Batch of 2 targets.
Target 1
Amino acid sequence: MRKLCLIFLLTMQFIASLHAASIEDLDIPALNQPVIDKANLLSPNLIQKLNTILLKVWQNGGSQIVVLTLPSLKGQTIEQVSIQIVDHWKLGEHKKDNGILLLISKAERKIRIEVGQGLEGSLPDAYAKRIIDESISPLFKARNFDQGVLVGVYKILEHTDPNLPLDQYFSDNQLFLDQSPNNEFLPIGPFFVLLILFIILFSFFGGSGPRGRGRRRISHWHTGGFPSTSTWGRGGGFSGGGGGFSGRGGGFSGGGASGSW
Amino acid sequence: MLNRIFLIGGLVSMLTACGLQSIPQAKNQVESTLAEVTNQYKRRSDLIPNLVQTVKGYASHEKETLEAVISARAKASQITIDPNNLDPQKITEFQQAQGSLTQALGRLMVVMEKYPELKADRNFRELQAQLEGTENRITIARQRHIEAIREFNNLVDVPPTSWTNSLFYHYEKLKQWDVSAEEQEAIQKAPTVEF
């Protein structure tokens, strides 16, 4: 199989380039949140949602799953790039080795799930391959990167953290609102509109109109969602939050699977 | 007189501090990474019977290719290396045997491209995924072992740790791993796929 030949060549190449500095060439991004979209494939909405979910998983004793999209692999194979990144970031807890990297490369159209040593039992290579081939790749082929990543991460979590309330995390919209900075501010706009309405109403009914109703209604206004993504993502909400997001010494031995779209 | 003793004592302690711990640590790392390499090769070996069975179901005519894999695997299983006893001769033999197995597997996979039903078989695809995963693990384990050898050799070769080595441990530099001659040949003559 061509893949095996490729691996021969890689081993040769690696040995020949023992003196080459590969980490410098690679330019590994800083790990500050679970979803890092260097290739600009994903929507801010999806990034926000997934950041919240994955952070919650990690904070509740689950695996440390990171999604990384890169514009290109700069001539290396996705396996080479992946292992360099996880060795550098050390995803997962030391000894538990429960880290996972979902790596997507835009130019080469490659996908890889790199599985930490401690998760090789719950997510064997064959399953990782299946997730890529059957779930992620078809959606990517349809250029639906958001869904592809979301479904892929869900399927991964189904294997690695089945004990966590995944369906709740994925569907709980209130969860995302708790993170939204808007809860800290008064929804000034609608408040004034209602105030003006009441004033108008007052003037009609001569003071004996509906008084208290409106105020309670205000709290529902922002469940409708302030769609502007600029208010959501202080992006760094995660670095401020539960003591930062970084690897904790987890180990990897090359397990996982690769695919393409 | 006392001053001189202190000076010499200080010098010796400085020298020995350089490498007293790190040299045996580096040696341990060499041994543990080698154990990991043999581990992953064994993992590959364990996958093969299942693979051969599955392929037989669809491509029984490919007797030669299958038998080549079976015999290469048998040969490779016979050569074991003891990570605590790094015998360069044994290691070379081991690498050669594993290299032959890699080649035989490669040829099998190429031949399997001709059988779409086999490729569609779920079992085969799972085995293929496992095999690719194992090959990746082998590659990484080898890289880490090569790195460990390099670190160890640096300590043994380069002063001041080399002085500590001469004084206390007398370790020889280790032979660096390279791609076996057979693998090299295989790379130069990559099998072509004919449909």
Target 2
Amino acid sequence: MSLIGIGHIFSSICFILSLKFLSSPKTARSGNLLGIVGMFVAVCCALYPAQNAIVSIIGILLGGLFGYSIARMVQITQMPQLVAGFHALVGLAALMVALCAFSQPALFGIKVDESSHIPTKAIVEIIVGAVVGTITFSASVIACLKLSGKVGVTKSVLQKYWIILGIITVVITSIHLGDCQCGKFFAVSVLLSLVLGVVMVLPIGGADMPVVVSLLNSYSGWANAGIGFTVSNTTLIITGALVGSSGAILSYIMCKAMNRSIWSVIFPANSEGCEKSEHHGLSASFTSAVDVGFLLKNSGSVIIVPGYGMAVAQSQRAVKELTDLLIENDVDVKFAIHPVAGRMPGHMNVLLAEAGIEYEQIFELEEINDKFAQTDVVLVVGANDVTNPAAKTDKSSPIYGMPILDVGNAKLVVFIKRSMSSGYAGVDNALFYQKNTMMLLGDAKKVLEDTVKAIKE
Amino acid sequence: MSIDKLKSHFEGLNQSMQVLQVELDSFMANYCGVNIASDEFLLYVNIFMLACFVGYHVVWNVTPSLHTPLMSVTNAISGIVIIGSIAATSTSGITVNAVLGFLATVLASINIFGGFGVTHKMLGLFQNNKKGKQL
């Protein structure tokens, strides 16, 4: 019974509790601290018996400095691409460790045959760690670039080749399991996985990104578990399973919230441009910030629905200003968040929290959907598809079946958008043309600031 | 039948039994989990399975408003791969392995420090403590 073994068990306990404490914002911070403690103990246990501990410590300090400065500099609005970028690092690290295990199995206590032939089980574990790690790496790089807006959507024939590539990877890998354990096959597997990761994410568009990022979160966990089996370390296995299931659950929640299966997200159907639905000769009514300010000031209850547009316009502070002003004027203000609003699970919550809006004012879809009917004004800031009633009525619509926020039930709905163009799903929103809806076009930040000014006068 | 013949038959039987025993032992060892090596692997699979269940139950209880910090904290925790990279670096001399292990250590610690730092920052934004929600 070694102290190091106990240390590892302690780390695992810390990690499990760390996630458990994320059940409420009050305990969440302690959860984060517990995670840090667990990691610290695990690293110490790894450094203690290591030969070149100094080298590793230098590496830790180097990486730590870099990581810490990134954490300090990054803005909350860049969170999606940051999370995606970090996943890439984990995948790459997992690949490197798998490579080391492959070239020097004795180092990790992997029992080798007389002809230095690694047993099949160990090879499978190494391959899992390497392939999943590489896929995580390349897919996360592309996801990060997409979320930063540097790469667009490439819907192309590549998709079909992806399946073929996937199969080839599996085949190469199984040949690997045979007698020929040469580095050549390893390199080919890794290269193919690299391409696989890229091809997997390229065709996926913006609003589906929450699913992709959660999936990659999951993959990084499974890569870790694979490495754990290779290195025979239970902390790695447990942590990998925790992270893997976390990502998987988040992906499931996201897909449920869009009412699409995971396959329709990963293999997006090539939509040949949706036909414009007729508006039955109705036209939308437009309004101005001044009018909206007046309306808001004199209403009893207001619900604000933020969307990706709010993030793009960086208008969360303006939203907070408006909220405070309305509360001063005795208006009840609530926020309604749709699960897939934004580019990442919990995206809107974090943006609103950054602006200083208290989490007790923020409600999820199930909690608030029946309150819309009693609300005077609904202010939709940069959201579109999550309010589109076609999801309930139009069977041919790509968003059919998706749970939506029933903003149409309110007495008055105001949409703040840049233009009348359709949202990510490419469908028209019939709500725009209803009698109780008004459109307020312009940049969300400017529009909201103008509204605030109007109320103050 | 003479006693000698009986004896030789008996010995022959004995030998066959011994051969059979050896065969059975190796069969049991290879396929019935009596082998120590496969015991260890099964143990790890057990742990993995249990950990998946724990992860499932723990993560379902995370409130949706904290999903982004959940992602960044699980990201930071994935940096645990640093255990493997530290083990890889612990070789004598500057081998390819040692360099790879060092690089992996750097990458993993970027994740660890960055992930926990970013989570801390985000959770600090949720710090407004008031009494329960009013609906």
